[in-house]
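Protein: LRRC3 protein
Species: Agelaius phoeniceus
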Amino acid sequence: QAFFCLLLCIPWGSSCPRSCRCTERAGAKAVLCSSQHLQEIPKDIPRDAVLLKLDANSITRIPSNAFRHLSHLREIDLSGNAIEHIDRAAFRGVAAGLRSLDLSGNRIRSIPKEALLALRAKLRLANNPWHCGCALQEVLGEARLDPDSVRGITCHTAPRHEYVGKPLLQALDSGANFCSVPRRSTDVAMLLTMFGWFAMLAAYVICYVRHNRERSRGHREHPRALPGTRGRAE
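Structure follows.
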């Protein structure tokens, strides 16, 4: 952290995003775009940037491949924005080398698990309006969370009202398993589907049997009428 702090003090002269300030020390470059009213991630960030600070802006989304060309990035700070949506491929290209990712203080309710699959960075996710469901539970099981920010992950909404307002870890420690709810829903849906197919098959069989009975009855009655018809003709 002390090394990254030193980056903030030394300017460098190569290309720098219009709303940002850029510094360098020992070949490591920092791009500082804090509090610049940005609504999206700048597209002209230098490829050799190591530290990227985008905190305290108005960014609402992290699109796919947002940092793909920044293979040297080690730290991204996106705290204090208005991020609501994170694409599945948001961190493609930087996931393996990233050491720190700060997403605290945004409007994130859920993160797709695929966005974090290859991510080795320490994650800060506190102070977001999380929906405590199976997706978030799976993210916590696979991600490397910053220990200092874990207790700030609070359930803003949840399948059961008793968990609302509680830290997610507290809910999980009390025995909550949010992934059991979708599984039960899936089982019910499968049962309903099977019942629907069974009902259709039963209806088809009933119609088929009735149709055959009517045909058999018609064949039995038709020969009886023939002699009477011949008598009237004579």
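Remarks: The CA atoms of residues 132 and 158 lie 5 Å apart.
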